[in-house]
Automatic annotation (TrEMBL):
<keyword id="KW-0812">Transmembrane</keyword>
<comment type="similarity">
    <text>Belongs to the binding-protein-dependent transport system permease family.</text>
</comment>
<feature type="transmembrane region" description="Helical">
    <location>
        <begin position="216"/>
        <end position="239"/>
    </location>
</feature>
<keyword id="KW-1133">Transmembrane helix</keyword>
<dbReference type="InterPro" id="IPR035906">
    <property type="entry name" value="MetI-like_sf"/>
</dbReference>
<dbReference type="InterPro" id="IPR000515">
    <property type="entry name" value="MetI-like"/>
</dbReference>
<feature type="transmembrane region" description="Helical">
    <location>
        <begin position="276"/>
        <end position="301"/>
    </location>
</feature>
<protein>
    <submittedName>
        <fullName>Microcin C ABC transporter permease YejB</fullName>
    </submittedName>
</protein>
<keyword id="KW-0472">Membrane</keyword>
<feature type="transmembrane region" description="Helical">
    <location>
        <begin position="127"/>
        <end position="148"/>
    </location>
</feature>
<keyword id="KW-1003">Cell membrane</keyword>
<feature type="domain" description="ABC transmembrane type-1">
    <location>
        <begin position="125"/>
        <end position="340"/>
    </location>
</feature>
<feature type="transmembrane region" description="Helical">
    <location>
        <begin position="321"/>
        <end position="347"/>
    </location>
</feature>
<keyword id="KW-0813">Transport</keyword>
<feature type="transmembrane region" description="Helical">
    <location>
        <begin position="9"/>
        <end position="30"/>
    </location>
</feature>
<feature type="transmembrane region" description="Helical">
    <location>
        <begin position="160"/>
        <end position="186"/>
    </location>
</feature>
<dbReference type="Pfam" id="PF00528">
    <property type="entry name" value="BPD_transp_1"/>
</dbReference>
Length: 358
């Protein structure tokens, strides 16, 4: 097992390198980079409004630049912008410099927020952790027992009507369901039971200790219900199908013939084998819950988390944040995938990764 873990750790290096290289190459062809973003702000709002306190960078506005919309700006000013953002260097040099810094976990500073990327991520992390942890807990706590029940009662009325609900939940985009919840319960056209933004109230610090968790859950109810809909549907169907496949196998028939109860057969034999596929889906669910799955939800409910930070950074072309979050979550995904494989061997000791080629 030690050799397998070492090989997987070594394999992470070219994997991360490839992910970052492809993303970096795509970004080079994307229009509207940081320099053009600043030029757009300058031409629309005025140089003094955009870069107040920028010193000699605000001088002259009489030349023409190479960027779209840079007419009327001093070429020397454009060159200073390029140097400020690091675009005065060749792409390969910028890429390898970035990767060298990332290997030392030095993610630099944001282009537009005047603070370090690490501080920004640390500031937004609690919101995403709140969403991710609760979604993982609720989705697995509800979906696995429900999936087992549906597998045991396959074809029954309970299975049919719950499948209908699950299919609807899977088909409806989570952001549309979130908008519906806002309209119905957050001061839209009907009821005003839940707050529309934030994970706590503005007066959270002045609340009594017993009121703080209630206030927190009051704010988190609608976002969690929205995210839980799609996660709940996927995990339930996956659990059901996995258990049905295992129940039909010969060893289950043999166990029943020996006189074991249905509970002993189901949880003593079937459960361990059926849960392997659920464990296999955990890394993707983990990363999705902490970042990609909550992106639109954070925007809809005005939650200032990592998903919203990443989206704003992509729109704004704040590349240090974009590449830093990509690097961090890619690394997290690879590490969690390795942990998932190790859990495989704990759940089913028959699996031996040392005998396989990575």
């Amino acid at each position: 097992m030690g050799a397998y873990i070492l090989r997987r750790l070594l394999l992470m290096i070219p994997t991360i390198f490839g992910i970052m290289a492809i993303s970096f190459a795509i970004v080079q062809f994307a229009p509207g980079g940081p320099v053009e973003q600043v030029i757009s702000d300058l031409t629309n709002q005025g140089a003094g409004d955009r870069l107040s306190g920028g010193g000699d960078m605000l001088q002259n506005a009489s030349g023409e630049g190479a960027y779209r919309g840079s007419q009327g700006l001093d070429p020397e000013f454009i060159a200073k912008l390029e140097k400020q953002f690091g675009f005065d260097k060749p792409p390969l040099e910028r890429f390898f410099t970035m990767m060298w810094d990332y290997m030392r976990f030095d993610f630099g500073e944001s282009f537009f927020r005047n603070t370090s990327v690490v501080d920004l991520i640390a500031e937004k992390m609690p919101v995403s952790i709140s969403l991710g942890v609760w979604i993982l807990i609720f989705s697995y706590a509800i979906s696995i027992p429900l999936g087992i029940k549906k597998a045991v009662s396959d074809g029954s009325a309970f299975d049919v009507w719950t499948s209908g609900i699950i299919i609807i939940g899977y088909a409806v985009p989570s952001f549309l369901f979130g908008i519906l919840l806002i309209v119905l319960f957050a001061g839209g056209s009907f009821l005003d039971w839940f707050p529309l933004r934030g994970i706590v109230s503005d007066n959270f610090d002045s609340l009594a200790w017993w009121q703080k968790p209630l206030d927190y859950m009051w704010h988190m109810t609608l976002p969690l219900i929205t995210l839980l809909l799609s996660a709940f549907a996927t995990t339930t169907l996956l659990t059901k199908n996995s258990f049905i496949d295992e129940i039909k196998k010969q060893y289950v028939t043999t166990a029943r013939a020996k006189g074991l109860t249905e509970g002993q057969v189901l949880y003593g034999h079937v459960f361990r084998n059926a849960m392997l596929i659920i464990i296999a889906g955990f890394p993707g669910a983990f990363i999705s819950a902490f970042f990609t799955g909550s992106l639109l939800i954070e925007y809809i409910f005005s939650l200032d988390g990592l998903g919203r930070l990443g989206y704003d950074s992509i729109v704004r072309r704040d590349y240090p944040i974009v590449f830093a979050t990509l690097f961090i979550f890619s690394l997290m995904g690879l590490v969690v995938s390795l942990i998932s494989d190790l859990i495989y061997t704990w759940v089913d000791p028959r699996i031996d990764f040392d005998r396989r080629d990575v």
